[in-house]
Amino acid sequence: MSQEIRNLEPKVLWNQFANLNAVPRPSKKEDRVIAFMKDFGNQLGLDTFEDAIRNVIIRKPATPGMENRKPLVLQGHLDMVHQKNADTVFDFDTQGIEMYVDGDWVRARGTTLGADNGLGVAAIMAILESKDIPHPAIEALFTIDEETGMTGALNLKGGILQGQILLNLDTEEDDEIDIGCAGGIDVTATAEFDEEETPEGSVGYIITVKGLNGGHSGMDIHKGLGNANKIMNRLLFDGFDNFGLQIASIHGGSLRNAIPRESVAKVIIAEVYDEAFVFDMQQIVNEIKTELKSTEPNLEIVFEKLDTPPAKVMPSIAQFYFVRAMYTAHNGVYRMSADFDNLVETSNNIAKVDLANGQLSVQCLTRSSVESAKMDLANALRSAFELMGCEVEFSGSYPGWTPNSKSEILDVLTSIYEKQNKEKAKVVACHAGLECGILGANYPDMDMISFGPTIHGAHSPDERASISSAQKFWKFLVEVLATIPVK
C-alpha cells in the first residue's frame, strides 16, 4: 500500500483506510473482511462478535466522564462495489486496492476506490482504537452486503443493539446531513428463445459502447449520464428496422447499483446491406455523441467486422419484441420529489443486459422515497417486459427512511456544523439506499442521522475521496461524539 496515503492527515483515519483496503471485500464474499474486523476488535480487547447474518458488532465503553451520555451506534458497511476499466488487469478476489494521491483526491488505479463505505468504516475503527477521544458507550455496527441487497441490515434482529442514537457514516457530500433516503427493489426480466441458424450471405460485427462515466445509480441518476444498455439498444433498434440486423449476443453493464458504462454486442446483417449499414450507424453514432457531448465527452462507439459471423442468432420475431421492450422500459429519473427541492423521488437503472445461447436477462434497480411510487414504476417495467413474453421477478425490496425533522441528534449536528464552518449544513434526504430505514424497522425508537466525507464517482473507476473533506469530516465527527446528549 502506498506510503503517501498513510502520511495523509488525519493519519489515524487514512491508516485504517489503508489497512481496510488491503483486504478484498466484494459484496457476498465478505469472509476475509469479517475475519479482519473481528481480529481488529479482539486485539483491542473489546467485546466483539458476529450476529446470525454475520454483521460484526464491537462494543467500547464510554470514556471517563461520558458515562451519563446516551449510548451510541456507529454504523457502516464492510462490502464495496467492484468495478474496473476494461483495460485494467485486476483481481478483486485476491488483490488489495491500489491507491494514489492526485491533488486533493485519493484515487484507485483503474478500479473503484472503496471509499464508499470504507472511509466511514475506517473512521469507526479509528474511534475504537483511540485513547484520547471523548465518547459515550459505543456499539460499532459493521453490516455486510449493503451494495447488493442490504442483507446485513435486513437481517439484523431487534434486541441486539443497545444504543439510543445511530450515526450512519455513509453519505458522500460533507456539507449535507441526511435524514431520509430512498427504498429500492430489484426487477429482473428473463426469457428463453430458440436460436436460429445464421443465414447464408451474412456478415458479422462486434458493436462496443464504452468510455461512459458510469456512477452511482441513485446519487448520480439525475446527471443525464449515458446508459450503455440504452445506447446499445438504440443502435440495435435502428439496425433491425432498417437492415434486418439480428443479435447473436449482448453483454452490457455489471451491477444493479452502477450506471452501466460498457456494452458489447455481436450481430449479423445481410452482406448486401454492409456499406449502407455502416454509413447509417455512423450517422446515429454522431447524433448520440452530439446529444451527450456535455455529460459524456469520452463516449466511444466502435464497429468491428468479424472474420466469421456468429453461427446462431435471435429470431426476428423475438428480437422485434425485445428491442421495443428495451426502448419502452424507463431508465433514469421518473419523478422529482414534491416535498424536497432538487430531490429525485423515483428512478430506474437498466443495469445489466445479458443475451446469449437462447437466454435473456435484464436486471434493473428501481428506487423511490415513496413506497407506492416505487411499486408503480416497478409494475411499469414489469408490463413492458411481460408484453414481450418475459418472466418478471421482484426481489430484494427494502424500505426508504422517512425523515424526522424533530430529531434531537439533528439539532446537535446542525449546531456543531454551523459553529465549525460558519455556515449552515444542508439538511437533506438522498436518492440512495441508506441502511437507516431498514434498521429502523427493528429499532423504531432509535434516533438516526447520516453524514460523511465528500466522495465523487462512487460505484465507478472514477471514484475519488477528497483529502481536505476527510479532515473536515473527522473534526466534525470527533466533536459530535463529545456532544452526545445526556440520557
Automatic annotation (TrEMBL):
Xref: SUPFAM superfamilies: Zn-dependent exopeptidases (SSF53187)
Superkingdom of source: Bacteria
Tagged with keyword Hydrolase: yes
UniProt keyword terms in alphabetical order: Hydrolase
Transmembrane segments: none
A UniProt-annotated Pfam family: M20_dimer
Limits of the Peptidase M20 dimerisation domain: 208-294
Ranges in coiled-coil conformation: none
PANTHER family the record matches: CYTOSOL NON-SPECIFIC DIPEPTIDASE
Alphabetized NCBIfam families for the sequence: aa-his-dipept (TIGR01893)
Record's protein name: Aminoacyl-histidine dipeptidase
